[in-house]
Amino acid sequence: MAIKRNLHNIDIAIRILIGIALIYFGFVDTSYISNDMTRWLLGVFGIVNFLAAVLRSCPIYALAGINTYQK
Amino acid sequence: MPLRLKLILSFITISLMVVSIFSVVAYISAREYTQHIEQVRLHKSNEHLFEMLDTSLPLLDQLQDIVPHHENRDNVFSIIDISQKKILPGGGFNLGTHLLADLLIQSSNKIQQGNFTIGEQEYLWSADPVPDSQYIIANTYLRDSSDISTFFSYVGTPLSTTLFISIWISVWAALLLARLFRQISEKNTLLEYQASHDLLTRLPNRGAIGRSVQQEMETARARNEELVFCLVDIDALKEVNDSLGHKSGDILLDQVTQRLKRTLQDSGHIGRFGGNKFSVMIKRSETDNAESICRKLLESFEPIYEINGHSLYVHATLGIAIFPEHANSAQELIQKTETALHTAKKLVIDSSVYDVSQDNNSAERLRLTHDLRNAIHNEELQLYYQPQFDVRRNEIGSVEALARWIHPQQGFIPPDTFIEIAEHTGLIQSLTDWVLRTAIKQCAEWRDMGKYLTVSVNLSARNLHDETLSSQISNLLHYWDVSPGKLCLEITETAMMTNPAHAKKLLKELDDLGVRLSIDDFGTGYSSLGYLKQLPVDELKIDKSFVLNMAKDESDASIVRATVSLAHDLGLEVVAEGVEDQVSQDELSRLGCEYIQGYHIARPMPHDELTAMLISTKVKNNTQADEILVGVQANHL
Lengths: 71, 637
Prior knowledge:
heterodimer, A: mainly alpha, 3 helices, 65% helix, B: Beta-Lactamase, Alpha-Beta Plaits, 8-stranded mixed barrel, 21 helices, 53% helix, rod-shaped
């Protein structure tokens, strides 16, 4: 099944920003968050967001029937 | 507020609450845990102190010597003498020391730990007895008052990260749930709509119409208004469906819906009553009385319909009933409207407003049905016989048996009325049974008197579906020992044509019995001569409508002449009924008509009257027909 785009460009941009920030705090600069588990969680969330942005499709949006790409 | 936003906000609130509760619990637990850790440390430093003691030297001196060296901010040691109940010099002091000493001195338990608060400051302490002595070393520690901020400096980041993630997940959950709710509610709305609407025309269906009639009725009752309920029957729908296909039928229904909507605009409620029927409910006002509504609706149907390139003229029939004039409940109003529609269709008119006299289901008719049932069961009906004059033999050759009902309260009920009721209520079979029984029995009685009369009995279209009819007739004939040729069964051509295959089979059976068969009311139905010629009938009865006027109306006379000639050519005998004058009788005799029946010969009469007449004319058996007729009429005048 082809992935259907459901993210608007602004949505994608926000997700990329959030994704990069979370990955940075999660895996790159570890000085901000001392707890490994927390960092790891944040990092995973960052990756999920970043992936959604790259694929231009959010699975949760798809399940929830939300589409910011085509109104 | 939209459901999605509501859910998101409530989920975020729940996350915040959960994280807050979790923080408080975590803070309390952390404090208890750190207190435990700190007290263990206090005990340990007490024990460490004890290890430094040399048992060979005086104890108190050693304690007073060592204690000050061990003291720092975290450990304030006090030397307490339990036996003397006092704090000994040499120990350190802080605000908690005295309080603690008093506590320990009063207490019998020597090993203790705990905490207490003086003002803003919280002290942790632990007291251990010096081995083999009356002394206790109490170690007091002033707890850091900035604990909570320290706590949050440690757990703040993980907590806020958790909060962030849990809010994130909450939003996901809220979005999914909102979608789920929306789907469920959409499905419910759709189901509700489907349950109450016709999906083709998108109009309310019969159930919804009933409910809205009920509602409107209540409003109208409260406001003292009148409601006009109307059923519109689209006559052509079946033909359109059959000839142009159901798609075209659907288009027609859609166009009818549009026209009805345009005609009524917002002044009425339109519904699809089912099949080819629409319903219209409208408030009656001075401008909108039942007649004008009818006219408007009928006019709206007049323009040609264009369906898939075909131009169609569609005719509608209207039935109307009015609240509160005709009905008091929705069900009754709808029922009365259906009756009105039925009447309009029966009379082949455009529209009909409910009229109680035409209501087949009125209370009056129901009572009559009930009475008829009883009358048949109790044999309260009477059988009259109308003589048929045999032209060739110049005598009464046969009689037609006719049922008569004298109602105890209402008097004479016309045969058309009660036979129609019998046909519609299934009583016709028992009625025919009774007529056959009585007629055959009577036939046998006359035979015993030496009068060999043929008795004609009318069969209804419904009787033709009775599989047992021929065996029943056979039994009766056998029982009364009546020759089958003395029974004639009259069946109208319309009845024969309602189910030709069935009729043919039954007539064949009856013919095999040897019973005479006659086509009644010939000329009024739509029978096919090609079909009739295949039937094993023996005679043909020309309908009285032609015979009645044949003396005055040349075209009626022509029809009679042609029918007689046709019947003879087909090898059938002819009975002319409705002969009311001598001219007609002479003419029919001249044409070669075999039997003549009518008021000119004799009216229908009860069997005893007929028997008396037969006896009185016995002597005239060999005289001319005219003389017999005089006798017959004399009997009747």
